[in-house]
From TrEMBL:
<dbReference type="Pfam" id="PF11967">
    <property type="entry name" value="RecO_N"/>
</dbReference>
<dbReference type="GO" id="GO:0006302">
    <property type="term" value="P:double-strand break repair"/>
</dbReference>
<dbReference type="Pfam" id="PF02565">
    <property type="entry name" value="RecO_C"/>
</dbReference>
<comment type="function">
    <text>Involved in DNA repair and RecF pathway recombination.</text>
</comment>
<protein>
    <recommendedName>
        <fullName>DNA repair protein RecO</fullName>
    </recommendedName>
</protein>
<keyword id="KW-0227">DNA damage</keyword>
<dbReference type="InterPro" id="IPR037278">
    <property type="entry name" value="ARFGAP/RecO"/>
</dbReference>
<dbReference type="InterPro" id="IPR022572">
    <property type="entry name" value="DNA_rep/recomb_RecO_N"/>
</dbReference>
<dbReference type="InterPro" id="IPR003717">
    <property type="entry name" value="RecO"/>
</dbReference>
<dbReference type="GO" id="GO:0006310">
    <property type="term" value="P:DNA recombination"/>
</dbReference>
<dbReference type="GO" id="GO:0043590">
    <property type="term" value="C:bacterial nucleoid"/>
</dbReference>
<dbReference type="InterPro" id="IPR042242">
    <property type="entry name" value="RecO_C"/>
</dbReference>
<feature type="domain" description="DNA replication/recombination mediator RecO N-terminal">
    <location>
        <begin position="1"/>
        <end position="77"/>
    </location>
</feature>
<keyword id="KW-0233">DNA recombination</keyword>
<dbReference type="InterPro" id="IPR012340">
    <property type="entry name" value="NA-bd_OB-fold"/>
</dbReference>
<comment type="similarity">
    <text>Belongs to the RecO family.</text>
</comment>
<keyword id="KW-0234">DNA repair</keyword>
Length: 261
């Protein structure tokens, strides 16, 4: 059966002399791997459509086992993302997160939209660090984690001082501080910020200007949830952390001859 899908190439790996196996996250089918015959040859019509980040329409021949990528039509190659080491690093991190958290082949149009809008926002020059943090919050539900942020997770109170509890995955009010000795105390502004960040639609994220310390604070919370509750390790995170610590070593490449073809 031949099926046309709207998708994004999550990753591509070499297979044999000239083929590639591409993993496509599509609106219609969810995550699927497909064989792209001849895609390693630069002259192949599948060479450019099988590159990671590519957003387009893909014609997949489904049979028993792995499908075959027959044709691709690029809507956006996300070239601007690939041309810069910072945007590439953040976008790679987002792709790996989506890839790791989705393990079946059922359609997930809502997640597809999040991924697509995130890549689009990075490509449109919005702060890639803020966008990746946003995706991390949004993907928590896919990992089965629903932080309680509208009230105290223990007693349900909506007033008072609040703290974030990693053990309870949510806010605790001052009356309940004693149930978690590792909580993080929050100012009213931080409470508001965390709520906003969790509930804001992605097309509004680009409009939020976040200070460096705000992002560091949000990141500390979200990364702790991922490492303690979700338990996934991302290869791209190590590089990202290194890059954030010493950005001066990672100047964006400007030389067009160094581009991939
Ligand atoms: Zn309480």
């Amino acid at each position: 059966m031949l099926q046309k899908v709207e998708g994004i190439v999550l990753r591509a790996s070499s297979y044999g002399e000239s083929d590639k196996i591409v993993t496509i996250f599509s609106r219609e089918l969810g995550k699927r791997a497909a064989m792209a015959r001849g895609a390693k040859k630069p002259t192949s019509r599948l060479a450019s459509v099988s590159q990671p980040f590519t957003y387009g329409y893909f014609l997949i021949q489904q049979g028993r086992g792995m499908g075959t990528l027959q044709q691709g039509e690029i809507i956006d190659s996300m070239r601007t993302i690939r041309e810069d080491i910072f945007t590439t690093a953040y976008a790679s991190f987002i792709m790996e997160l989506v890839d790791k958290l989705i393990d079946d082949e059922s359609p997930k149009p809502h997640l597809f939209d999040i991924l697509h809008q995130a890549l689009q926002a990075i490509s449109d020059d919005y702060d890639p660090e803020a966008i990746s943090l946003f995706v991390e919050w949004k993907m928590l539900a896919t990992a089965g984690i629903y932080p309680v942020l509208h009230q105290c997770v223990n007693c349900g109170a909506t007033d008072g001082e609040f703290a974030f509890s990693f053990a309870q995955i949510g806010f605790l009010c001052h009356r309940c501080f004693s149930i978690d000795r590792y909580l993080i105390r929050l100012t009213p502004a931080q409470v508001k910020l965390i709520r906003t960040f969790y509930t804001v639609p992605i097309d509004q994220v680009g409009k939020l200007t976040l200070k460096k310390e705000t992002k560091t604070f949000i990141k500390k919370i979200i990364r702790t949830i991922y490492s303690e509750q979700v338990g996934i390790q991302l290869k791209s995170q190590k590089f990202l952390d290194q890059m954030e610590r010493t950005p001066e070593f990672f100047t964006p490449k400007k030389d067009p001859s160094s581009e991939e073809h």
